Amino acid sequence: MLRKFFKKYLPSHETIRQNRFVGLFGDRLHHHNLWHLHRRSVAGGVAVGLFTGLIPGSNPIQFFFAALFAIVFKVNLPVAVISTLYSNPFTILPIYIAAYAIGTAVTGDNTGSMPEVELHLMDKSISEWIPALVEWVVSLGKPLLVGLCLLALLLSFAGYLLVRGGWRLYAIHEWRKRARRHRHY
After folding, report:
1. 3-state helix, strand, coil in the chain (%, to 5)
2. How does pLDDT run across 85-96, given as a tens digit for each residue?
3. Which end of the chain is more exposed for a tag (fewer CB within 10 A), N or C?
């Protein structure tokens, strides 16, 4: 059931190979783990996607690094790329606040509270508040950087374990269901 769902919505490996950015990887895209949907490959793809989703920058940068790490670690490439989408313009601010809190706790940098940001989204155009947001992120410094690294590791580890465990539970459920069906015949 899960495989059918993923196969229905994920692009084919030929479509991905023809992409001009992914095509840069050439013959490295022929490893079977990059395309097959099995427990280890999908769990690894989720872990890579959750890790690279916190790389500062836009989605194409995150997609590129997700593809690069998927190829290096030989995990499912489409799942890795799609898993980066959890960080988007709506979720990035809470993620960065959580990362800053983690970084502050680890580094012990309690020099003060988080710098305030005044974006006034309704009063300014996007060209005015994006530089203000970037300036605010840079002002967070070491606690944010440490927090982002730790949060990326934590999310990727948790995602890997959840997918592996969920996949295992689903397989056990299906085995038992099949066994019950066979007992009735």
Report:
1. 75, 0, 25
2. 999 888 888 998
3. C
